[in-house]
Amino acid sequence: MTITIIGLGLIGGSLALSLRQQGLARHFVGVEASLAHARRALELGLVDEIETDLSTAVRQADFIVVAVPMDAMLAVLPAVLDAVAPPQVVIDVGSTKQALLAAVARHPRRGRFVAAHPMAGTEHSGPEAAVPGLFDGKTVVLCDAEQSDPDAVQLVEKLFGALAMRLLCLDAAAHDLHTAYVSHISHITSFALALTVLEKEKEEQRIFDLASGGFASTVRLAKSSPAMWVPILRQNRLNVLDVLDEHLHQLQHLRKLLAREDYGSLTQQIEQANHIRKILP
Amino acid sequence: MTITIIGLGLIGGSLALSLRQQGLARHFVGVEASLAHARRALELGLVDEIETDLSTAVRQADFIVVAVPMDAMLAVLPAVLDAVAPPQVVIDVGSTKQALLAAVARHPRRGRFVAAHPMAGTEHSGPEAAVPGLFDGKTVVLCDAEQSDPDAVQLVEKLFGALAMRLLCLDAAAHDLHTAYVSHISHITSFALALTVLEKEKEEQRIFDLASGGFASTVRLAKSSPAMWVPILRQNRLNVLDVLDEHLHQLQHLRKLLAREDYGSLTQQIEQANHIRKILP
């Protein structure tokens, strides 16, 4: 099987490495807008060749992965579908789904496309960030899979299953809502934490000195790139604003309890927060 | 050397294991308010014996570590100092310093006490949470060390040095300010994130399904116990309120930019947050 990966960053690159490691394809073709990233991806062995023409890259593949930021995705995915024919299968790996699925809803090749969101990543980006095993044991969400051809869904289930991923089917609206609650909000809190500390702590050496594992893990996502995250926040804006308002409310409540010195209620709130331990042990 | 550890939780227990591993003491005596924790600490080999009488436990030791929550610390540390005489040395390992140092400022044995804050920990608590190597490569802050006897400071430097810790000297006011900025605020953001997700996401299975490494790391500190954290927030209340106000301001600013669809400024803010990468690579 030949696989074409469009966008050789953290996710596209890691998927190439993982699929190759599992022996699921022999030949990997890469498409990458950045010449520097394309060269590095070749050096790192993420792909076997770089193809600069999108439709040429698509036509030679059995399976096509579109792994570009969500703003580019809205233009690239329809162009990819223009070039495919059965039995070729196309997936995206994007973090938001409603806008994307609307953009291809009436495409004549819609059935060849399976909307997929592997819930895995790190704060790093680019081909250097690609690692095999990134997806091992993680969840992959397939969205509106009933609008994809059954053979396309089967191939996608086989490939992600071989990477030891857990499959979850959601409709696009539910996907965007739940990922806002669980994934997107934690990036915003982390960006805001970094901005807070950089604003208050003018002695950068003190941040380095005093950063323990706790601070480092909470602020880790603040290293994530705006090129990836601004399009996600844009496409999932209403859900993110909704959960962000709840988060502001919770923070203001904790502030009020501390200001009032209501330590009994503060203890109750922290005990309530500790329930997360039951869900994520 | 005999070391007495008062409070056999995460920090006290890990310190016992680490000091023993480095061969820095032969005999460890434990004092622990919870009978269950005392038994478990013996089973786990954190200490060689449990002593129920505080002054007996203190008098037989060369070096005494007080590792109880910050509210208990205000009562226990003066009682420990009542029982010591040169050349015995006492340290605390607490996360706030101004209230504690004020509580022992006029104690006749003040010189035998060195205020220490090892910047290390996990979200877990109790003797089961103790691990050797917790302090390896981390920073330990010594506060107002000029008010301690030079031989006491020397012993503390030797012991923490043997654990491969980096030493940093700060006055108590600076310590409480900087730890509010870097450590205490990240616990509040994490508690608030957990409360937000638990409030919005009524389907707990969805949290489990969709929690990727990013969410898990951001919410990790929300598993921390109120018994430890409420006293810290109480004793560092004004600094914490100050940094919490800045954090609310930063979050509200991000919210405003997203509500207004000002993606240029949102990109700039995320780029600004990315500067944390230079300090914590």
UniProtKB/TrEMBL annotation, chains A, B:
Its EC number is 1.3.1.12. The keyword Oxidoreductase applies. The keyword Protease does not apply. It comes from the Bacteria. Residues 1-281 form the Prephenate/arogenate dehydrogenase domain. Keywords: Oxidoreductase. GO terms for molecular function: prephenate dehydrogenase (NAD+) activity. This is Prephenate dehydrogenase.
